[in-house]
Amino acid sequence: MSRINRQRVEDGDSVDATDLNARFQDYNQSGGLNAFNTRDAAFDLPQFKNPGASTFGFLASYQNSALIGANDYKHSSIVTVTGVSSTPPPATPFIVGNAAGSPTPISFGAAGITVSAGEVLRVYWDLSVYPHWIGSRPWTTGASVDFYTFDNGSGAAMALGTNAACWAFWLQWDITSNALSNFVEVPNQSDFRTPLIGGGTVYGAQLGDTMSTCVVPAFIDRAAPDDGTIPGSPDQVRVGWRGLSGAWYYPKTSGSQTIYGMRVVFTGPMAPNHNSSTGANHLIHSVAWSSDSRLSYAGGSIDVVKQRTG
Amino acid sequence: MAYTPPTTFSNGTVLTSASLEGNFDALRVYLHNGIIASDLEASQWIQTRHIQPPRYDPYTGIQHGVSGHQGGQWSGGASARLTFATKYTTGNGKPTTDTFERMSGTSFQVEILQPNSIVLYHYWYEAEVGPDVTTGGGQVASFLDRLVWIGPLVGNTSLVEKNRLQPAQNLQVGFQSSYPIGTTKTYPMSGGYASRSGTLTDFKPKGIYDYGLVYHSQIDRVAIVNWSVALEVYYL
Questions:
Q1: Does the CB of A2 have a partner CB in chain B at under 8 Å?
Q2: Is residue A272 part of a domain?
Q3: Residue in B closest to A72 by C-alpha
Q4: Among A173, A200, A241, B178, which one is least packed by beta carbons within 10 Å?
């Protein structure tokens, strides 16, 4: 085996099949590549990947992104929803869409994208959101699970919000067709409409079923505590406009999955809950004051990358 | 598999550009990703010098190898060194302005050497936002409604993707002038503490690109306490 050493083509040469074929066959050197014909730093790790194996091909083979929501960063065009009602089961989730109410999913085209064994789909999204409410500290009313009761120092009760209530956002995908009319929750993600406790009156999801979920606070309630008492009335503080971001990874270890589109949905307000009998942690619908809660959102984006894991 | 030209030429037939390109394309694939064990001489001869190592750039914090870039920068923790955003460089708090500035100290530059590279750019920051209770000057009248937007910078400030900016609200209390001087409530209690993050993906042709953070502020003082930016660039 020797280095490829063939005279270059000169002006006036005639095209000859034997010569042309030889110039390509020079690169077919089975068992011949060695130190003699390999310069320093000639090889990188991808060159040793075996064609046909799951680790062959581009490290990152697909990328796509889309704007979601109402595309206006100064918030003159927004979407506002009211918290889900107390009627069981809770309403289906809100779909992030534009100011006209049309959903803003990301589409992967007519053929979709296929995640094969040895690949991972990485999904990231963000959205400008504004949790707010009507009235004064509605989370302290009646059967709300979103407040503690303290002594005000004079023996009377003083309610203070837990600051744990939140709105939950997660991912859905359509794996049936590019019509994008059959969205369902991604794997390991609940729609928060599962009856959990209370004989069908308390709905939500176990935390193990919230793998694509991200949350944003529903309110801020502050007080000046003094030796375990709350002597003055707490203040409600605006949560304000803020950014929300989430991430979800879908590793495929066997088989394959074709995906045609994804979208971001949300519901709320939600409250953390611990089931002492099962030991499970939940996010449950906080319905006692949900009719007073609001969530506004403006714009954001969703980004998708597919790459191999090996 | 070893390289086999898709087309074997014969004398007397038409030589097309497509058949030539087909052979060249197959050769490119082989050279970049198709060499297998049986193509190599059976005896061990590859040494470290034959394998291209990645190169680390201590200025950008980016490692560059044959398959792309990876790395990033951060500031914060025990050695927090604040950087600031302010309305005085982005329109003086007037609601109709659209001026953007780079967040000082957060930018770096990388050279992408292959076409059609896939880029993932991650960013994260924590900030104390406000307070700003100044009046007049045509700025947003209610200090409660004043916002700062911080987001990813790719290229320069004329290329800001506004929909990717993440807003945060002005601190909803003021300063007290008597001892102890400072905000009248803590930032977390008053909604003035912001933690935001995001990821941007993109296709990029060959070129030199700036990555960092950019802001538009309607608030006097926004102190960025902790931040980090990270980059993944895939050539292959």
A1: no
A2: yes
A3: B163
A4: B178
Mean pLDDT of chain A: 90
Q: What is the pLDDT of residues B136-191, one digit of tens each?
A: 999 999 988 999 999 999 988 888 988 899 999 998 877 788 888 877 778 877 87
Q: Structural domain tally of chain A?
A: 1
C-alpha distances in Å from residue A39, one per residue of A7, A35, B49, B190: 21, 7, 9, 63
- pLDDT at position B67: 82
H-state helical runs in chain B: 17-33
What ipTM goes with this model?
0.82
What percent of chain A shows pLDDT beyond 90? 66
CB contact under 8 A, A73 and B167: yes
Cα gap B14→B11, rounded to integer Å: 9
Mean pLDDT per segment of 10 residues, for chain B of length 236 residues?
88 92 89 78 83 84 88 86 94 94 91 90 94 91 92 90 91 81 79 90 93 95 94 88
Domain that holds residue A235: 61-308
Q: What is the DSSP string of A157-215?
A: EEEEE-S--EEEEEEEEE-S-TT----EEPTTB--S-EEEETTTTEEEEEGGGBTT-EE
Chain B closest CA to A17's CA: distance in Å? 5
Chain A touched by B227 (CB under 8 Å): no
Q: How buried is residue A159: exposed, middle or buried, by Cβ count under 10 Å (0-12/13-18/19+)?
A: buried
* Cβ atoms of residues B47 and A43 within 8 Å: no
Is residue B191 within 8 Å of B197, Cβ to Cβ? no
Predicted pLDDT of residue B52 = 77
Q: Which of B167, B196, B187 is nearest to A220 (CA)?
A: B187
What is d(CA A79, CA A198) in angstroms, rounded to the nearest whole number?
33
pTM of the model: 0.84
- Tokens representing residue B169 in the block: 């609200």
